[in-house]
Amino acid sequence: MHGCDGCTACCKVLKICELNKPGNTWCRHCNIGVGCGIYDTRPESCRVYECVWLQTQRGGRPIAFELRPDKSRVVMGVTNQGDDLVLYVSPDRPDAWKRGGMVKLVEEMHAKGFTVIVSCGELVQKV
Ligand code: SF4
Ligand code: SF4
């Protein structure tokens, strides 16, 4: 089973309220591409967070390794009680979700009835 090992993508893209860390900015505690510099004392929101890619690694249909967020540059989450898939992309890579396997994944999610939302900085749009 694959895990985070060396992916630190969410430590950039997501807001961390406890640290007053805005989205799309590297956390000051992140060893980029290595892991958390304060792992044992990291905030609760970091402790509980698992992106969709990571969640699927435990199941029977894991999302492909090449779509891990450090490789795809897309951090996947859900909202609306799991009915909507949210693709968080950094404003310096706004089209990351349009590449290769991500496009196929978006098509599959549409076919399953999910609404897919791209969140890129201040811009949030259905795709
Ligand atoms: S984006 Fe997902 S795989 Fe990458 S570090 Fe965060 S939880 Fe782990
Ligand atoms: S505290 Fe650690 S886990 Fe949380 S965002 Fe910063 S580097 Fe990532």
Question: Can you tell me the residue ranges where pLDDT is under 50 for at least 5 consecutive residues?
Answer: none
Mean pLDDT: 94
What is the percentage of strand-forming residues?
Answer: 15-25%
Computed CA radius of gyration, to the nearest angstrom: 14 Å
Structural class category = alpha+beta
Ligands, ions, cofactors: iron/sulfur cluster
Q: In total, how many beta strands? A: 6
The helix/strand series, from N terminus to C terminus, equals HEEHHHEEHEE
Task: Break the fold down into its secondary structure elements and pairings.
Blueprint: H1 10-13, E1 30-31, E2 35-36, H2 44-48, H3 52-56, H4 69-72, E3 75-79, E4 84-89, H5 100-111, E5 115-120, E6 123-126
Parallel strand pairs: 4-5
Antiparallel strand pairs: 1-2, 3-4, 5-6
Bound molecules: iron/sulfur cluster (2 copies).
One iron/sulfur cluster binds at residues 4, 7-10, 50-51, 53-54, 68-69, 75.
Kindly summarize this structure in a few lines.
This protein is of the alpha+beta class. The protein is about 25% helix and about 20% strand.
How would you sum up this structure, described in words?
The radius of gyration is 14 Å and the shape is globular. The model has no long low-confidence stretch (mean pLDDT 94). By secondary structure, it is α+β, with helices and mostly antiparallel strands. Strand 5 (115-120) and strand 6 (123-126) form a beta hairpin. The termini are far apart. The chain has one domain (10-126). The relative contact order is 0.15. The strands form two sheets. A four-stranded mixed β-sheet has the order 3-4-5-6. A two-stranded antiparallel ribbon has the order 1-2. The chain has helices at residues 10-13, 44-48, 52-56, 69-72, 100-111; strands at 30-31, 35-36, 75-79, 84-89, 115-120, 123-126. Helix content is 24%, strand content 20%. The structure holds iron/sulfur cluster (2 copies). One iron/sulfur cluster is lined by residues 11, 16, 27, 29-30, 36, 38, 42-43, 46. The site of one iron/sulfur cluster has 10 residues, from loops.
